[in-house]
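Follow-up to my earlier ticket, as requested here are the two runs.
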Amino acid sequence: MNTDVRDSQNAKANLTPSVSVIIPTFNEFGNISKITSAIGIALRDRDHEIVFVDDDSSDGTRTEVAKLAATIPRIRLIHRIGRRGLSTAVTEGMLSTTAPFMVVIDADLQHDEKIIPEMLSFLEAKTADLVIGSRYIEGGGLGSWGKRRAQISAFATWLAKMVTKSDLSDPMSGFFAITRAAFDSSVRDLSGQGYKILLDICASSKSPLRIKEVAYQFRTRQSGESKLDALVTWEYLMLLVDKLVGHIVPARFISFSLIGGLGVFVHMVVLSVLLATGLANFFAAQGVATFTAMVFNFFVNNTLTYRDRRLRGVKEVIFGLFSFMIVCSVGAFANVGIANYLFANSHYRWWSAGLAGILLGAVWNYAATSVFTWRIRKRPNSATNAP
């Protein structure tokens, strides 16, 4: 009996791989087979699994993963619906495995999978908790990047170093290996914002991490399209804000407030143009300016602040805009009412009463629109790409 139990336990232990490779995907159909083959060759001497975390791709990515998984047992798939973002995808992938060592790599073949064994050797020797694939140390390179993109990356890297207070050469890297213990020490404090999960982990770790860097040459994407755009830059800045002051004020609220400030500028421009051209009296001009600013704020917040909950389709957008305007109208009344009360009855100066009203209105608008306009919705399964 004891022998049978022991044999059963050993069999179960063998089912747990020593290395889990986490690959976030979104419309990477053309790269799935290639990256699977490349990882298999690089880790042929190690017991490993590959976890694809897909954000509801529409190009057949999941079908391709399922096809490979039918013949390669070490391949697993996590299909996420209604959730977007590389950082949260990587986090969910890591939480899904019990492997003691985890590697994060992109599906687009721009990271050099051949250095993974060297990265893992530092973790296995217990000389590092985190090993980063670096483009900026001797032997590394940016491949075919143009001068402008390299300069932007260098500036973003400098900002990241300021926030993490580290001398990492490439804190913006999306290619790294980490121990289970190191990930567990930071996972509860991760912001989950944007695309820079490595920066999030480094800034969130409760204790200093022993870090090594391994050089690699960044390669050119062979298939699919880059997911990086101007919006990712905003998410990156919000991640830095979250790491700096997120324990005091939510980064999403700061984004919402900054966009609200831009809305004030839009309001004043429209108001001044209408009055200067004589197209409307003050009452009508103020109404048009208010409406324009609300529409501006809604669409910019939908694109930036709530990118992970973005409203899509005509019906969603119309109902979202309607609820946003109702909520903000209530906030405007509260703003005016509180400011007037403080100024008239509490001997506040005009500017302090005004600021108090603005703050109250901003908090109300942020909280209420989070609940009524950008609440988390359940989305239907994609009929075009069911695995």
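Run two:
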Amino acid sequence: MEQPRGQGLNDIPASTSLPPLVEGPLRYFLRCTVARALWTTPKPPSAATLVRLRWWGETSDGTVFQPPSRAGQPGGRTTARYPVRCGPRQFTAYLTDMGVLVLEVMTKLDHLPIGRAQITSLSQLSPSHPISGVFPIISPTSDKLGELQVLLMALLFVIYSCKLYCCNICAWIKLCSVLTLPQSLTGLKLQKILKSGIKKVEFSFTAPNLGNLCCKIVTCGLKTGNIK
């Protein structure tokens, strides 16, 4: 079965696009990784745990992550990529209005609530500013049980047109610091693709490659490209 665009083989299927119920073309992805649950309470949960994320306005049951919570205990899938169907300014406004992102920690067997972790300062999230850290898990009785290790990162997906000038493209690229690059796409392969004259080129990259990639685009000439 073909993977949805932007979704990795081991990603959790996203329960919603963002903002929920907003229709429109795909603008970019928001990658959320719940890497690990770290227990600090003397009596941590004996059974495996899950983490559920529901976005403000979402009508589904949310996305369920399966981070490892004990040393040596294998976890399940920990990453989901949410399609974002609005521009960065509109998405920042949505995050600002939401205020707090709540992650519910629950038992795996019967989904009984254990505690919650909250992420604030969501309006700071942007392609150049991911949110990464450990966030306390608080019980219903306001006791700290542990911490969740979470990463929120915007992954850009942009369609370039032949009408755009390379210099403008490169200037825009330099504003973006978080994109993904297939390891198989080397500089030589990129040059070959760009020189081939095909109508569409698909590529992506990360911040350390920005300078070299901009030079390659200017040197080779860009036809039409997709970043994902």
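The only thing I checked on run two: The chain has four helices and eleven strands. Let me know what else you need.
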